[in-house]
Structure formats: structure tokens, C-alpha cells
Design a protein that fits this description.
3-stranded antiparallel sheet; 33% strand; single chain; binds zinc ion; mainly beta; 55 residues; 1 helix
Amino acid sequence: MPAYEYVCKDCNHEFTVFLSIKEFEAKPKIKCAHCQGDNVRKKISVFTAKTSKKS
Ligand SMILES: [Zn+2]
């Protein structure tokens, strides 16, 4: 499941949200895990699925 990193513009708290692609495409309202504000900005997407395998 992809993880999305957000940073809150109000309190600078960084947090990670786990959403499926479907959930993310529904553009959910992400709230800051610290101050519950919705003034958050997405940082990067980190995919937990590993693309490289050790042989
Ligand atoms: Zn905040």
C-alpha cells in the first residue's frame, strides 16, 4: 500500500498516511495528525512495494 508523506503548514508536523490508490484518487481530506488542521501539503509518495529483488 502506498504511503504518502505530508507536512503541516501550521505546525510543521510531518506524518505519513497510508492510502490505497482508490482512496487517494478520491482525494480525501488529509488532516494533520498533530493539530488536526487541514493546511497540509503532500511531500513525496513512498511506495512500500519493493521493485528490486535480491538474487
Ligand atoms: Zn499541524
